[in-house]
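#lab-general

N.A. 3:47 PM
ok so I finally got the sequence cleaned up, no stray characters, all 443 residues accounted for. can someone with queue access submit it? mine expired

B.Y. 3:52 PM
send it over

N.A. 3:53 PM
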Amino acid sequence: MAVVIVLAVSLGVRGYRRRVAANELESGVKAVQACFEKSFGGSEEAVPVSAESGTAKKKSFGTWFMETYSGERGDILKRIQKGKISGEEIYAAVGETMHVLRDRYNGKLEDAGTARAEGIYLREGKADQAEVVIAGDLCFAEDGFVLDHYDTVNDLSQCIAPEILKTSNDADIFYLNHEYSISDRGEPLEGKLYTFRAKPERMGLLKEMGTDLVSLANNHVYDFGKDAMMDTMDLLDQAEIPYVGGGPNSEEARRPVYFVVNGMKIGFVAATNAEIVYYTPKAEADSPGVLEAYDTAEYNQVISDAAKECDYLIAYIHWGPEDTNTYEEYQHNMGAEFLQAGADIVVGGHPHVLQGIEYIDGRPVVYSMGDFWFNDETKYTGLLKLDITPEGLKEMSFVPCLQTGFTTQYISDQQEQAAFYDFLEGLSPNAGIDENGVITEKK
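B.Y. 4:20 PM
back already:
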C-alpha cells in the first residue's frame, strides 16, 4: 500500500512539473511572440510546420523560436519577467538580433546561397560588435592614373600603405565607391571630358584591398556605355563583391545589400546626385544604370524600406561641389531627409576632397570622404571606422591618410595626425575629434 502511495505521489509530482514546464514554455512563447510583434509592428507570415503545399499549418514566431533555440530555452525563461522579454535580452541569450531571427524564421538564412539570393551576406565577426570601414572614391583608369604607378612597382603595398591595407582587410565590412567601369568593351561617352575604365584583370586589386562591398552610384560607372557597365556588374558578381546604387535594371539598382555580422544585420543603400550634364543614365525597368536622387522621393523610400529590415542602415550619396571642402546647404537638407527616412548615418562622396561631419538630431552626416586612391594630387583622405553593436553606433573614428603622388599614405606622425584632426574638425559644425580620431557630437 505504501509503495502505491509513493508511486502515486511520484507520478503526481511529475505531472505537476510537466504542467509547470508547459506553462513556463507557453509563457515563453507568448513573451517572445509579443517582443516580435512589438519589434515589427504586428505578426509575420509564419513558416510551415510541414512541407506540404496548400493548407500546411503555420506556427508563430514565438513557437518556432522556443523550439529552435531549445538549448537556450532555460536561460530565456529565466530572463522573462512578468511574461515579458526584450530584444536585447533575446540577443544576450542567443546572440542574434530580432531582425536576424526574423530572417532565419522566414527561411532566408538557411545557407549562404539562400541568403545571397535575398541580398544578405554572412560574415564571421571577430568581436561582440561589427566593424565597418568606409573609404572614399576609388578610380582605376588605364591611362595616366594610379594604375600606371601600380604597373611600375607591381606591389599594392607601395601604392596604398600597409597600415591602410591591414585596416581594410581586418574590417568585418570594407566599403568604397567604385568610380569607374571594368571591361574590355565600349567606347568613351561622346562629349564627356573624363572617362575611366579598367581592364578585367584589375579586379584582383579590389580583392587584395579586402573589398566587401562597392557603390556604383556615381558619375563614372557608365563612362564606356551599357556593355561596359554590364561587364562591371558581371565581374563583381564573379568576384563575389556585392554592389549597391546601380544595377542591370531599376529593381536591382534600388536593392539594398545586407551583411549579418555577429548576429547583427547591417544594411547599405546608395544613390547619386552628382551630374549637371546627365551622362550617366538612371536605371530603368529593362536597362542598366544608377539609382538617382535628383528628386529625393525615390531614394527616401528606398531608405525607409531598407531601415525596416536591418539593425543599422548606412546610406551613401554621391553629391556636392567638386574640389571644395565646404558643403552646400542642399547637402545639409538632403542629409536631414535621408536621416528622417530611416538612415542611421549618411556618408557622401564626389567632391574629391574631405568635407565636414555634422550631427543632425544625434545622427551623423559625413559629407565627403574625398578621394581614396584616385590620382597624383596631394590631399587629405582617410578611412571612416564604425563600431556597431545591437544598440547602434558604439564609436565612430577616422584613420588619417594622405593621397600624394599616385599613392595613399597613412599619417603616422603624431603632430601631423593632430593637424589632420584639427583640419577635419574645423570643417565640421558640431563634431569633435580627439587625439585618437574618435568623433563625437559637440553638445
